[in-house]
Amino acid sequence: MFVYGSLVLWNFLVEEISTRILTVFVAVLFLVRVLQKLKEANSLPPGPWGVPILGSLPFLKGDLHLHFRDLTQKYGSLISTRLGSQLIVVLSDYKMIRDAFRKEEFTGRPITEFSTLLDGYGVINTAGKLWKDQRKFLHDGLRHFGMSYIGSRKAQMENRIMREVEEFLSVLAAQKGNPIDLNPFLAVSLSNVICDILMSVRFSHNDERFRRFMFLIEEGFKLFSSLEASFFIPILKYLPGQRQTREKIAKNRVEMAQFLQETIEEHKKSFDPSHLRDLLDTYLYEIQKANEEGVGHHLFEGKDHDRQMQQIMGDLFSAGMETIKSSLQWAVLFMLHHPEVMKAVQEEMDQVVGRRRLPKLEDLPYLPVTESTMLEVMRISSIVPMGTTHAPTRDLQLNGFHLPRHAQIVPLLHAVHMDPSLWDEPEKFNPSRFINSEGKVVKPEYFLPFGVGRRMCLGEILARMEIFSFFSSLLHSFEICVPAGETLPSLKGVAGITISPNAFKICLKPRPMEWDSMGTIRPAGSH
Ligand code: HEM
């Protein structure tokens, strides 16, 4: 009896002690974790803490890039803040951005609701080896098809662009000076340039297929924006309405994928390895080579080939069309606001290019007023105000602060372009800031419309060629004015991933070319 009683007591004590030890152990673990979090929070770059769960979300006012700019003015050029569950680190000093983004460890992409929707396909939202291989391949491929400052391929690219410029100008001339919104005309012409390079596809201005494709892209942007809240507070994705939005995104993606897949299938049928027509063919070539060698291709890392090609085409199209369209719309808008600059650009071209032909890329070094005007448009509009969001590939230190692996790193390009310590009166539109005392165009190292470092824009050369060709030809061919009775359109843009102007209308009055007064058809080789 005594032995039994002792055993019961012993067991009771052991259980009691174990429970207590376990409780103490859990409490210590919890405390250590809380201390770790506090230490981490203390070593993060400075910035507003906000409120529990929501972070700074309730205090967001206006456009995100302007909100971040206000914070950097208050807390310094490296700040951190929480938006819901996401830790955001903003860099606004150009040297800091440049030095950080040169390093491999800043080339990651954050894992967000948005990136999971894309399943790691494409180039823009990938990271690691797959991104690196993809980027190198695309860089070489785009060069091969003329995205280069030198060589015969450059001439090919210029011809391709000028074919679209001429069609653009003739469609505009057919509007006979009536008020028009340039947006749909630019959309077709610019899409044709990029689609030709990617997959030898061109659209006409009334093409139903193209309209549907553009509609799906625009709707996609809107649908993604309406999911934004759940990117920051993931639990919101279970709200009614959010599921339907996701389903709609998936449905639209299938429709766009079908459109792209049709082109991929046509390419597969007519594929000739000795004559690669476009970027899509270069992918097919790589796949064929890998199949013959019986190995998986490093460009796909076990991913579905067709889906990867679809996403690459989609990535380059969406990165390459909207950005140039917005830049050109900003350029026109600034010309309406600064007719004296428009006049100076036109006079320079009349003198250097003459009235017998359209401007060519080789004229550019002799057109400092035109070039500096385009640069100033890019600076002041900063159409990709926050670049793309990067993520550290591991926990890092930057300027003595801790950047955890899950942080989202934002390069605030807008703040760099509006920094009064770098630019004199940055809010003022002043192209001559890019011209030195010898009359030459100079681009300071803190001019970063295409970002900087390892993940900087892949399409910079094409973008510069297109912006020059469309802008200079438009101004060479037409006087641009506000429709009679209408007020000057606002310079306040609509901010999303890019900033574009609100829709506005213009009237175009032809500036006679010499072949018009001669009553002849445009002479062959005049452009
Ligand atoms: C005015 C036109 C354009 C501007 C201002 C622009 C600007 C930018 C910026 C700021 C970035 C992010 C850089 C970073 O995060 O560090 C970017 C990335 C990118 N751009 Fe552009 N871009 C333009 C046109 C184009 C064109 C025409 C193409 C395609 C042919 C293109 C393809 C890309 C791609 C693929 C990336 C992502 C690169 C990567 O993730 O490694 N862009 N661009």
From TrEMBL:
Keyword Hydrolase: no
Residue runs in coiled coils: none
Residues engaged in binding heme: 457
One Gene Ontology term, aspect cellular component: cytoplasm
Matching PROSITE patterns: CYTOCHROME_P450
Identification of the protein by name: Cytochrome P450 18a1
Pfam families, per the entry: p450 (PF00067)
Molecular-function GO term, any one: heme binding
Cofactor requirements of the protein: heme
Species in which this protein is naturally found: Zophobas morio
Origin: domain of life: Eukaryota
Key word Transcription present: no
Keyword terms of this UniProt record: Heme, Iron, Metal-binding, Monooxygenase, Oxidoreductase
A single BP term in Gene Ontology: organic acid metabolic process
Protein family: Belongs to the cytochrome P450 family.
